[in-house]
Write a structure and sequence with these properties.
disordered N terminus, 338 residues, 13 helices, mainly alpha, 72% helix
């Protein structure tokens, strides 16, 4: 007896309108900021950037993006998906390219997942988990480092009524975050032993995912390498942001750059705009006077646009990478295997 394919459910009105709402919100924020900016002063901010510091920031950003590809490769290894480091990096840059124009900040993830499933159709669940955990490890490392660098900016935070509660909560946030991470490692070891009902729909897939979670958290030196690389991704991006601030003559040290990136990346990740555009700039305009950096919106917008531009420059190479990306995996191709 042939099984009938499930009839897809009709999309709700909200799901149909969501992309257009994001476009509208992005346009509204950018339009509002455009009316507040002195364009001549903004242009002067760009033209006064020191090329040497800017080139250094660009190079450090490339290192950070390469580490992102390495983090993805390590996750695939822990999921027993045998993709070479070169091909994982290749696919990572393709994902960065699609993030530039697909609505939402996860469009590139969908493209990466599409190719993983095409190359490894027998490992769909683990491919999906690898993409998800790539985000999870990235966000966890970002917030962990944010907590680590907050003390370096505590004086600025305490001086402003908006951020003073965050500075006072700092002694509690670090231990709490450490406890939650430790809990995740302990719990993951017991996941495959959960007593699932024998007739549970999709039981084999769920068990595979539970084992996959355990493999990631208890993967020995590979897991250690994954955590180290996840931290290094953001440590280098903080360095790039610091070098960029020097290029623009802004009083932003390494700790403050880390804090700023944590806050604007968190705001840009909210699913209310197109890839965080507008939200990122508005957040920067809000932060600069509150953190005592500059009262001028032109300085904040220039810094925000150039931070985005660092990643944009290298992401454009992902378009070239996409043109050379094979449509199907070849088991005898050494670029697909370790």
């Amino acid at each position: 007896m042939v099984e009938k394919e499930p009839i897809p459910r009709p999309r709700t009105l909200l799901s149909r309108l969501a992309p257009w709402l994001r476009v509208g919100i992005t346009a509204a924020i950018l339009g509002f900021l455009a009316g507040k900016v002195n364009w001549a002063r903004l242009a002067e901010r760009f033209t006064s950037a020191q090329p040497l510091w800017l080139a250094s920031a660009l190079l450090v950003t490339l290192i950070s993006l390469t580490l992102c590809g390495t983090r993805f490769w390590l996750l695939l290894r822990l999921q027993k998906i045998q993709l070479s480091w070169f091909r994982a990096l290749h696919l990572t840059f393709v994902g960065f390219f699609f993030n530039l124009f697909l609505i939402g900040s996860t469009g590139g993830d969908a493209v990466r997942l599409f190719y993983l499933i095409r190359w490894f159709p027998e490992q769909k669940a683990r491919s999906t988990l690898a993409i998800l955990l790539d985000r999870v490890f990235g966000v966890t490392a970002l917030f962990g480092l944010g907590l680590l660098f907050l003390p370096g900016a505590s004086d600025r935070l305490l001086a402003d009524a908006t951020f003073a509660p965050l500075a006072r909560a700092l002694p509690w946030l670090g231990p709490l975050g450490g406890f939650l991470i430790l809990l995740a490692f302990v719990v993951s070891g017991f996941l495959p032993k959960l007593p699932l009902p024998a007739k549970l729909p999709g039981r084999s897939v769920i068990l595979d995912l539970l084992h996959a979670m355990r493999d990631v958290m208890h993967g020995g030196w590979t897991t250690v390498g994954l955590i180290t690389v996840s931290l290094a991704v953001h440590l280098t991006s903080f360095g790039g942001a610091t070098l960029l601030a020097r290029s623009l003559h802004l009083p932003i040290n390494y700790s403050l750059a880390g804090l700023i990136l944590v806050l604007i990346f968190s705001a840009a990740a909210l699913p209310i705009s197109v890839s965080g555009h507008g939200v990122r700039e508005a957040m920067m305009v809000y932060l600069f006077p509150h953190l005592g950096i500059s009262p001028d919106p032109e300085a904040a917008i220039a810094y925000s646009l150039m931070i985005h531009g660092l990643g944009l420059f290298w992401s454009l190479f992902g378009g070239l990478a996409y043109l050379t990306l094979p449509s199907s995996g070849k088991k005898n191709d050494p670029t697909y295997r370790r």
